[in-house]
Amino acid sequence: MRPFIKALAAEMIKQHKNYFHSKMIYVSLFVWPFLNFITTYYSFKVFDIGKSKIAYITAENMVVYLLLGYMCMSFFRSLVQSAWNFSFERISGTLELIYLSPVNRAAVLLGNAVSSLFESVFVMLIFSLLVIVMKVEVLIIKILPCITVFFIVTAMAVAWGMFLNSLFLFSRDSDFLFTILEEPMEIFSGVKVPTALFPLWAKAISIIFPLTYAIEAVRRVVLTGSSLYEIREFAVIGIGITVVLFALISVIIKRVESHMRITGNITLF
Amino acid sequence: MIIAEHLKKTYIVKQGKGLFREKQEIQAVRDISLQIEKGKIVGLLGINGAGKTTTIKMLTTLLSPTEGSYFLDDIDGVKYPVEIKKRINMIAGGERMIYWRLTAYENLWYYGQIYNVSNNVLKERIDTLLKLVGLENKKDVPVETFSKGMKQRLQIARGLINDPQYLFLDEPTIGLDAVVSKELRSHIKHLAKEQNKGILITSHYMGEIEELCDYIYIMNDGVLIKKGTVKELTTETFNRKNYVLRLDKHSKEITECICDKLKVVDATVEVKDENDAIYINSRENISMELSRACMEAGLYIREMYEKEPHLEDAIIRLSREVHHEAVY
Q1: Which UniProt keywords are listed (chain B) (predicted)?
Q2: Cross-chain residue pair A101–B96, CB shorter than 8 Å
Q3: Residue B26 CA: distances (Å) to CA of A260, B11, B92
Q4: What is the ipTM of this complex?
């Protein structure tokens, strides 16, 4: 266990120093989701939100409703980007050296995912919390369900990040996953529009993204004061998704290394 | 000791363009057996595309051999690659394989962590290695500001961070200037002779191989074509002797006269007159006859020596022979 933790910590520190070398990167990580949020907020302002079919969305809590969506989106988006960063490791040849070492591969993937998760969402998280605190009158929060959902969402996000990281290791041509997963995840996970309003075909797509469940659970505990019992199905689905993703990660890590050792594709970039 | 026997590596590659590409087998290594002893430096030479890098990748467990066996100190490298990884490291030439935005110290610290070197040992080892490669004053400077030679020296330190028993060097001095290359060769010798590490090196610089290697394997087209010490390889390849002769007088007639006298001993002798010297190539040892011929002709010998063939000449000769066999 000790080597695992050492490798995990080393990977987090290395990623921090390698990618977050300038304070400006925090600004860029914040500005993009912030602009998206502002655009969406003012787009929604022209509609009569009071007549929404979704009971918990009101004109008063609209800003918090959207912010929660964007906050969750930042969590998951940062992990798609962290997976993309692995392509740079391939180019610089450092990925080959990681595979030359006896290090636990899962520790490296986890370190990369966790580092990216906390660093990328840091500014967005602070901003969102500030706005939410300013709109405290619209919040109906129960502490225990809120903490529970936070941990489940974080676990799901990390598992999702590791899963994508592992897929990116398969080949230098895995970059297409970035295109496939980035925008569709925002559209179909209910960041802006609740998935309950989606047509059936779009609902079917939304099911595959863990972010869908994360956003819905967060909104319910923050905006409707749902109890643990009321969010039990999200908790079960969230834990289930995390377990399945970790099982897949474990299989993929072994398959990736075996594939690399047969094809030698680790040196291709 | 590393013992690899009959290693083979076949890749399946997709040929052509479009959706339905044909799969084709490519034999990168067809058959190679080699041994690396601790404390010895072994050279792996070949013409481009001979299979050297694939061989190194198999020995470092980055590639699995299609066939053959590989043991490192009695550990089966094919079955237990993780055990091998703990005992080896690799250093490649060039500026890749280090994190440019990190400092020299941070790079070594990261690699030390992933090799699970204990923190107490690691700090001391990083300081020792940085001193060994002359970067102790640059340890907190980002690698991106380093010169090519400094990056390469950091690579050497990185390759030693886990104190490997065996080290694989893939063209470690490529692109370096003469002074830095000399320093690196000195480090490599030190690692083998003083620290008892087994080293396998590939290089296109034959002088480097001649200076460093105790034993050499030569590959061509995925197979081993020759092996031996530098002396064995050159004498086996060049079964004729070369002499250089400088006299007090120099003329075409003198050269012809010497040639006539030597032909009596060795009919195949070739005598060439170039600049101020006479070059003699013969099947036999004719140094005595050569001295006698000069004395009889009343010539004063200013300089006479037997020219040792270089490894580079042997490699060129071997590659020509292999090419000739392939064509005919």
Answers
A1: ATP-binding, Nucleotide-binding, Transport
A2: no
A3: 16, 5, 24
A4: 0.82
Query: Would you list the DSSP string of A50-82?
Result: GG-SSTT--TTTHHHHHHHHHHHHHHHHHHHHH
DSSP state of B300: P
Mean pLDDT for back-to-back runs of 10 residues, chain A (269 residues): 90 85 68 79 77 74 84 80 76 88 92 78 72 76 86 88 82 71 83 86 90 89 85 90 93 90 70
Closest partner residue to A10 among B12, B92, B114, by Cβ? B114
The first and second tokens of residue A51, run together, are: 């007549």
CB contact under 8 A, B57 and A264: yes
Cβ–Cβ gap B116/A100 under 8 Å: no
| Residue B279, token pair as written in the block | 């070059």
Q: Give the pLDDT confidence score for residue A5 in this predicted structure.
A: 92
Two tokens, residue A137: 């009158």
Closest alpha carbon to A180 in A80, A71, A75, A76: A80
**CB distance A65 to A57 below 8 Å:** yes
> To the nearest whole angstrom, how far is the Cα of B325 from the nearest Cα of chain A?
31
**For residue A196, what is the DSSP state?**
G
DSSP A125-165: HHHHHHHHHHTGGG----HHHHHHHHHHHHHHHHHHHHHHH
What's the confidence (pLDDT) of residue A58?
Answer: 78
DSSP tag of A10: H
Greatest extent of chain A over all pairs of C-alpha atoms, in Å:
60
More confident residue, B254 or B213: B213
Question: In this complex, which of A92, A93, A101 lies closest to B115 when CB atoms are compared?
Answer: A101
Inter-chain contact A94–B98, Cβ cutoff 8 Å?
Answer: yes
d(CA A60, CA A137): 9
How far from the centroid of its chain's Cα atoms is residue A222's Cα? 19
| Closest residue to B62, CB basis, from A6, A92, A100 | A100
How many CB atoms sit inside 10 A of residue B28's CB? 22
Distance of alpha carbon B128 from alpha carbon A253, whole angstroms: 35
Burial of residue B139 (number of CB atoms within 10 Å: 0-12, 13-18, 19+): middle
Q: Determine which of B62, B87, B170 to mutate to test the interface with A (most A C-beta atoms within 10 Å).
A: B62
Partners of residue A108 in chain B, C-beta under 8 Å: 114
Nearest partner of A164 among A107, A249, A93, judged by Cα? A249
> Helix, strand or coil for residue B133?
coil
DSSP state of B98: S
- d(Cα B265, Cα B242) in Å, to the nearest integer? 15
The helix (H) or strand (E) run that includes residue B169 is strand B166-170
Distance CA B233, CA B310 (A): 10
For residue B327, is pLDDT > 60? no
SS3 B196: coil
pLDDT digits (tens, 9 = 90+) for A100-127: 999 999 999 888 888 877 776 676 677 7
Using CB atoms, pick whichever of B85, B96, B115 lies closest to residue A93: B96
